[in-house]
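Hi V.,

Quick status before I head out on leave. The structure for the redesign project is tokenized and pasted below; the design run finished overnight.
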């Protein structure tokens, strides 16, 4: 009796041992292609992220039993009062880990004792403004904070998606100017303009990209939900280009209070506008001209922080 063995991918790999080649066998057909180059896994930014996680764990281990109990009690109170999207219970360790992480991103030390938990604020809309520099990002931010003092905005962006029909992936999002305080800015009043120069990614007019923003309370480290804005870099208005050549201002004055454009977020719609939504389907973003969402067209009645009906946990 004669037995014949079909060659397998194992035999092919042994024959090409040491070569950077991927060999697979699908239904008896061998597929061979060069192994793709993996991104570096130990960059300074990745080391900074790991250092924050390590410092958080070590800080928790150094807390006393009473301090850990205080964090656990605050976590239970926060879970009862403020709505959350996670089904997992908010333990004291998870709350401490979140506050410590954002405090370190802001360049601040970790609090060993809980400092309270103010009502989490959230972004409700982003209006992208034109810019002559592809590494400068100017946008108008709308949010729920009535008293923005003491809050900061953490901003992340993705590189250009390459095609207008492709949506940005969160896995490609990075802090706009590197991991740390440089990618944060003091939260302006709702409708205020935020500007970042020298961003890590270059996005040219007409290119689509993603932006992720989050509001963080500076003193406590408590953070609100992350808002996603699906954006397209707008073209510079013709009058702005002529002003730039003449040494004048580099952009046209944005028109606020406009209604979202028709076209339901199709790339290349009328006037180059886009009304794709973010923040779990909520909020409206704009490309081409700054757009204020419909639910933000009417300014809220101003009031002092003491008039806020939401409780602030001590």
């Amino acid at each position: 009796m004669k037995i014949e063995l079909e060659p397998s991918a194992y035999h092919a790999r042994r024959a090409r041992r040491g070569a950077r080649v991927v060999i697979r066998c699908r239904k008896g057909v061998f597929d061979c292609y060069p192994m793709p180059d993996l991104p570096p896994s130990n960059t300074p930014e990745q080391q900074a992220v790991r250092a924050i996680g390590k410092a958080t764990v070590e800080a928790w281990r150094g807390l006393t039993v009473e301090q850990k109990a205080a964090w656990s009690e605050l976590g239970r109170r926060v879970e009862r009062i403020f709505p959350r999207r996670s089904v997992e219970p908010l333990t004291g360790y998870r709350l401490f880990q979140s506050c410590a992480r954002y405090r370190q991103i802001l360049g601040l030390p970790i609090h060993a004792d809980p400092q309270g938990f103010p009502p989490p604020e959230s972004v409700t809309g982003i209006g992208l403004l034109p810019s002559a520099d592809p590494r400068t990002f100017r946008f108008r931010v709308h949010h729920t904070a009535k008293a923005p003092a003491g809050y900061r905005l953490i901003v992340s962006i993705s590189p250009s998606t390459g095609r207008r029909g492709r949506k940005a992936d969160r896995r490609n999002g990075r802090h706009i100017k590197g991991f740390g305080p440089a990618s944060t800015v003091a939260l302006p009043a709702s409708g205020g303009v935020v500007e970042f120069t020298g961003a890590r990614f270059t996005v040219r007019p007409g290119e689509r990209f993603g932006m992720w923003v989050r509001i963080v309370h500076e003193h406590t480290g408590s953070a609100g939900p992350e808002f996603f804005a699906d954006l397209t870099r707008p073209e510079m208005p013709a009058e702005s280009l002529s002003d730039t050549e003449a040494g004048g201002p580099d952009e046209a004055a944005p028109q606020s209070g406009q209604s979202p454009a028709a076209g339901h977020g199709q790339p290349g719609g009328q006037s180059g506008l886009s009304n794709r939504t973010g923040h779990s389907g909520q909020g409206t973003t704009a490309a081409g001209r700054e757009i204020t969402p419909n639910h933000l067209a009417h300014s809220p009645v101003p009031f002092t922080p003491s008039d806020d009906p939401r409780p602030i946990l001590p």
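Above is the designed sequence. The chain has five helices and eleven strands.

G. will cover questions while I'm gone.

Best,
W.
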